Amino acid sequence: MQVPIGSRARRRRSTSPWQSSAGWTFAWGCSLWLLGFVGTFVGASASSPAGFGVSLSATPVAGTAPLLVRFQATPTAGGSPSVEWSFGDGGVAFGNDSASLAPSHWYETPGSYNATVTLRQSGEVAETNLTIRVTSAGVAVRVAATSVSGPAPQTIGFNGTPSGGTGTYVEFLWTFGDGGSGSGPALRYTFLHNGSFQVVLRVTDSSGTVGTGSVWVNLSDPARPVTPSASTGWGGTIVADWPYPVAGFLALLGLVVLTRSRGRHAPPDDGSSGLGPADGRTASPEPRVGGSPMFSGRQGPPGPVGAGDPPTLADPGPVASVPIETRAGDRAPPRRTKDVSDQLIARLGRLGALSRDDVATIERTQRGLAEELGIGLNVVSRVLSRLVAAEVVEVQTRHVAGQSKRMKAYELTPSGARMAQELRRREYRDARKTASDPDGTDGGGPSSGGGDPEVEE
User: Fold this and answer.
1) Which domains are assigned to the chain?
2) In sequence order, what are the residues at sequence separation of 6 or more whose Cβ sits closer than 8 angstroms to the Cβ of residue 187?
């Protein structure tokens, strides 16, 4: 098939517009416009500086006073900005290093505080703030004492340190556990007797909030170590930290040996100060002379032997006593020196034991014992001191009935009570002997019921 030449020429002229110069010009124009738009956007972004700011956090943001808050400021751009802090309670801080971005601050009183941080760098300023809420806490009280132990009487200093609340404290009230009281943040108080006492301080702040603190005070007499001396006539040395039962046994043994050794060189007495021979006589009820009992006082004589008791009482030997030294001006002691310790032990045995709440009578003091027994006060004082050292007698500072001040009151220890019991048994046997032989025909002589005569100086 043949195509006319005119028709072929028309097909060539109908080619794509991109193959013409006008099409290429349009395409290049669009491309250049697009590149210019993108370049303008990118260039604008590169030439604009980043925004300068700061963020702020704190831990904790609320609590009771006094409250410690740790802050952390974080700039949104790098560099080393200068830092300024205002904590809202008058406190400020400055710096230009990393540590100044994380300060800590104490809020002492309750309230709401606006903490602000300001950063400055290259002429730009960034600032932010955070609210800290501090509430009122209860009043806490700490009590300190100069001493919390030792013997009475003792004066102790006390000091109270309150914290919390409003910080302003309007009242300090003390109670000392023994009925005493006082006021003020610091004071001194004297405890007159031994015991355990809870000292309490009550503090009130300006808002009426009350807090308390306390401390325990334990007062007691120290354990008395057995310390022998030349004046007692003991031999050897007793170590103070031995077990007390062993030390007490050795002390009593030394007294017994001393008494026996002195008795070999002393003239025989009428038997009123000894326990008598081990005659194996059976104990019987209390005898009566002239229709009245031989014994008086709280403890009384030993009762009759029961069915379960041994049929006889074996005499343990002479009762231990302490030698007496006389001085010029003292009233002369009885003829037998060991009678003073025997009489003191017997008298205290009749008075009995003191409980913690008892009020002592004048008969338990040195003066009362001296008047009761008719013995010089200095002699009674020395003998009681030795009996205390031997742990036969115990001394305490107590309130005494009818006296305006505290005095030393004496009572027997358990070993002293046993010695008093032996003395009562001896007196009981002597009373029976006198009742059965009033004329002393058995050679022993009559027993004097009024006590031994004294030798005048």
Assistant:
1) 54-135 (2.60.40.10), 140-219 (2.60.40.10), 230-436 (1.10.10.10)
2) 157, 158, 174
H-helix or E-strand spanning residue 106: strand 104-107
Which residues, including other chains, have CB under 8 Å from residue 286's CB and lie 6 or more apart?
293, 294, 295, 300, 301, 303, 428
Contact 113, 90 (CB under 8 A): no
State how far the alpha carbon of 398 is from the alpha carbons of 152, 154, 387, 405, in Å: 10, 14, 19, 9
Q: What is the pLDDT of residue 232?
A: 43
CA 40 to chain centre: 84
Backbone angles phi, psi at 417, to 5 degrees: -65, -35
User: What DSSP letter does each residue of 394-424 carry, written as one string?
Assistant: EEEEE-BTT-SS-EEEEEE-HHHHHHHHHHH
3-state secondary structure 293-320: ECCCCCCCCCCCCCCCCCCCCCCCCCCC
Give the residue from 304, 309, 269 showing the smallest Cα distance to 428.
Answer: 304
Model confidence at 181, pLDDT cuts 50, 70, 90, reads: very high
pLDDT band (50, 70, 90) for residue 259: confident
| Residues 7, 14: Cα–Cα separation, whole Å | 11
115, pLDDT greater than 90 = yes
Whole-number average pLDDT of the chain: 74
251's tokens: 């002390």
Count of CB atoms situated within 10 Å of the CB of 88: 18
Q: What is the pLDDT of residue 164?
A: 81
Chain-centroid distance of CA 5 in Å reads 132
Could you write out the three-class secondary structure of 112-174? EEEEEEEEEECCEEEEEEEEEEEECCCCEEEEEECCCEECCCEEEEEEEEEECCCCCEEEEEE
